[in-house]
Amino acid sequence: METTITPRDGRSGTPASATRPRVVIIGAGFGGLNAARRFRNAPVDVTVIDRSNHFLFQPLLYQVATAELSPADISAPIRGVLRGQRNTRTMLANVSDVDVERREVIASDLGDGLEHHIPYDYLIIATGARESYFGHNDWMKRAPGLKSINDATSIRRQILLAFETAEVEDGPERIAALMTFVVVGGGPTGVEMAGAIADLAHKGVRRDFRAIDTAKARVLLVEMGQRLLPQFPQGLGAKARRALERLGVDVRLGAEVKQIDEEGALVGDEYVRAQTIIWAAGVQASPAARWLGVEPAKAGRVTVGPDLTVAGHPNIYVLGDTASARDRDGSPLPGVASVAIQQGHYAAKAILQRIRQGDPAAPVAPFRYFDRGYLATVGRTYAVGKIGPLLLSGLAAWVVWAGVHIAYLIGFRNRVLVMAQWIWKYLTYQRGARLITRDPRDTHADFRRATTASSAR
Amino acid sequence: METTITPRDGRSGTPASATRPRVVIIGAGFGGLNAARRFRNAPVDVTVIDRSNHFLFQPLLYQVATAELSPADISAPIRGVLRGQRNTRTMLANVSDVDVERREVIASDLGDGLEHHIPYDYLIIATGARESYFGHNDWMKRAPGLKSINDATSIRRQILLAFETAEVEDGPERIAALMTFVVVGGGPTGVEMAGAIADLAHKGVRRDFRAIDTAKARVLLVEMGQRLLPQFPQGLGAKARRALERLGVDVRLGAEVKQIDEEGALVGDEYVRAQTIIWAAGVQASPAARWLGVEPAKAGRVTVGPDLTVAGHPNIYVLGDTASARDRDGSPLPGVASVAIQQGHYAAKAILQRIRQGDPAAPVAPFRYFDRGYLATVGRTYAVGKIGPLLLSGLAAWVVWAGVHIAYLIGFRNRVLVMAQWIWKYLTYQRGARLITRDPRDTHADFRRATTASSAR
């Protein structure tokens, strides 16, 4: 069944108007949501489509995975963010295709599974990326990545459950495997995860257990290249490595993960028995290239021109991790939040300018990325990064990191709550969100139902 | 495979001692956890077994279900609570039986499914209760109860998704069903849920939607008896009813839910089409009676004597919702947190006294319940209740309610976070935890996996 959605005249809806250009934004991440906010009060009808109901502040996701923050602390309901924009509606739906001839986005909403066709005059695709297992998709279940709230609570569950099981386990080999954590990939996510797990194990929960010493937990960080943080200047990667080693992380450079199975992973030539393996090694763009019928660039990205539109489709913009865009000097733009944010603002401005000029292909100034810098944390109070021309490391970098992340969090409430929890943790080493909750992909998923008849509360 | 667990000499474990009496506590709710804390520094070896890793502050669970608080805000890791008690170890495991002859608790831990036998000299069973569907267990999936974090996030998901679906839906009948919420049971949980849903719909998210007016959402509260809050004095039930009606809740007294199916519920003689049905109508004790091989009392509870032990088993104490205990005047004790808390303290004191006297059946003073009162909220700033001899209603009762609940929350961190979020909500009407996350029992559970190949971010 198909339905074509046109704005209805609800209590407070924008009056349906055939004359106002329709902008459809797919994906409410950093790129899409910042584009949407730019259309506030503009003479357009905006539809934002996302398959989650919340914007997710992905740079702090590793803190949910390591039991430091709650999911809601780093999320904001998309509807809430856009509630004041009367020309904008939000749609929780799953996009399956784009009909570039009829200029329609094809989506099914999550409630009834019906197919909806959403017509657009201008389309912004900002659907991000997911993990890439480089052809080993069978590793996905065993070595989850860290892209969504559900990924994070699932990893949190796995880490906490490993300690719980080790506490009641008798075999020393099995205990060692339960207390071994392999993080694959030495980029910012991998570095931050490895540091946070080491902090949690070696400090956070140490006094909670009786039979095991969690300080003996082994955290491996495996990176194929010759240094950590390859996107950062060389010296910072070495500094991050030393900081991780001080936290007790076993950093393996130039090491490839050749196999992952139920028992563990083959790291270089060493087989490491490990219960928990976390994948932070690579990403692959969402299937936007297929929707548009264009040849994908590296990692499945969609190649865009200097105005972020797709060749032959001057009304289709692709942003962030979905796009393969180049800086003025020809170098590829990195897959970081600040690129997506700036591209979101740019796309909205370009569309509004072209609408004013009455020509969807009117010339606009090319996108220019203003690189403010980058930062990655290593454990509790250490970070490395580059702010403008300055290379920073240590506590100073961490303070900048904390300030930047608090400032970019959406919503006063989240800022206050996250700050309060950080202060609490840095004073006490305690983490507040040490909840083991069920995960649907887990084999224990039916645990509760199967045991309601015979179990402890 | 069976293993018998005896305390091991870990890094920081209590030295294994054959001479110290072993106390095993099943269930770390209000009763079990308060008993455990009483054993601090006492000459006993304590094992606390729970199938969750966290203590849950159940009285605030309805606020998680209605997107106001995060799960971690009302939970505390059991290990964290007991970390300072060197004589106490915590075990995440699922109890399947008690061998009263050999004095062993039989449990399997969640990690490997192996069976463990945990020997005890004294046993405290405080495993709580779960929903009772009065013979209609097939309603469980359609009309979930509110007992665990997973229940609460599942109900939160269902409520929020109902509005999301209604927003993109075209058929007026279907929209009406999506925006109808039936709460079954007029006790405190039902009253609090109905008030909170009405608040959320009519105020909290109203400005977020364009096609629907969430103020038109219908909230039904169905109670078989002739008044709400039957445990409270008559006048308070009538006050709660009027307060709910002011919030727009349709209160149906003397109405029975005769059938629940995919489309809705038969309420008295009216068939109500509703997407969301929440069960708060009754509870049933955990299967402790079966473990002990005793005839269960009403609602599956275990009958205990004035010292809270089971007839014929002077070393087995049963507390809280699992027990059928009587007050001095012969009236049955209600299933509320304060009874469980006081019983937990009592059981630990009785055990320690009997250990000192060297006789597990030495006479002790009978348990006496000190009834401080009870309170239930109705919406944002209204509550009804009884404090000592005083009947309270309105804002004053709400202030007392808030103070009592903040005071009883475990942990300074949770107190501050919950208070901050309440203040935020009462100032802005906004709820911070409006997250739709996946639920394993839901048919959409495999949504992500099925759609990773073709979907919006």
In terms of topology, how is this protein built?
2 copies of one chain form a homodimer.
Chain A: E1 2-4, E2 22-26, H1 30-38, E3 45-50, E4 54-56, H2 61-65, E5 75-77, H3 78-81, E6 88-99, E7 104-109, E8 115-119, E9 122-125, E10 129-131, H4 149-168, H5 172-178, E11 180-184, H6 188-204, E12 218-223, H7 234-246, E13 249-253, E14 257-260, E15 264-267, E16 270-273, E17 276-279, E18 283-285, H8 288-292, E19 302-303, E20 309-310, E21 313-318, E22 323-324, H9 337-357, E23 373-377, E24 383-387, E25 390-394, H10 395-408, H11 412-428, H12 447-451
Parallel strand pairs in A: 1-8, 2-3, 2-9, 3-6, 9-21, 11-12, 11-17, 12-13, 19-22
Antiparallel strand pairs in A: 4-5, 6-7, 7-8, 10-18, 14-15, 15-16, 20-21, 23-24, 24-25
Helix pairs in contact in A: 1-9, 4-5
Can you tag this structure with a few keywords?
alpha/beta, 25% strand, 30% helix, homodimer, FAD/NAD(P)-binding domain, 457 residues, disordered N terminus, disordered C terminus
